[in-house]
Amino acid sequence: xxxxEFNFKECTLSKLDKLFDLEIxxxxxxxxxxxxxDMVISEVEKEILQLYQRNLKQYVHxxxxxxxxxxxxxxxxxLVDFSSKKIGLFxxxxxxxxxxxxTLKGNPDGMxxxxxxxxxxxxxCTSYASQEYKRHRDPDGDPAGQCLAAMLVGQxxxxxxxxxxxxxVIGADWYFMLLKGQEYAISSxxxxxxxxxxxxxxxxxxxxxxxxxxxx
Length: 216
What we know:
- The chain has helices at residues 13-20, 29-36, 43-59, 65-80, 131-135, 143-157, 196-215; strands at 5-7, 23-24, 87-90, 95-99, 102-106, 110-114, 122-129, 164-170, 173-180, 183-186, 190-191.
- By secondary structure, it is α/β, with parallel strands linked by helices.
- The protein has one domain.
């Protein structure tokens, strides 16, 4: 009997492609908009980003996943300020869905959803891994697969009325993702130890604007 229930941690891109007949695309129009539209960064924000970057350069090779989240990823999202009465950034909240008879479940590292104190409709999912993942890749799971699995559940909950946004982070490398129907796209790496940190922040600020338009 074939297995019909998977934890996010078990999921790889290859496994999800086969289970759900997914296709990775070079480009999807909403992804192009997200990655190319400009957003202004204030001087104060630039100074704070430079502080985050100095710490990242010094410690990224030594931080474990929790430390990476606490010292860099979390502050990046906090600086954008996703929390409001309409949307919120939630961590490790349980997410479960059934897609074509197959159950996917887990606790995503991060989600942006509707809702004030409790998560509601998902708009964005994210997963993280430290530099250690690069040195010793886990064949039974990867951040991209885990993130895409959560995005698939979010899309099912939303009845595919709009794309699901996502991002997986490995050390200093950020990869933005978008899922629309059975097609998904993954950006090239944005390296936070380089000037890419400003573009990472622009993508996060633009993500907030996109989500606020969806909930309005």
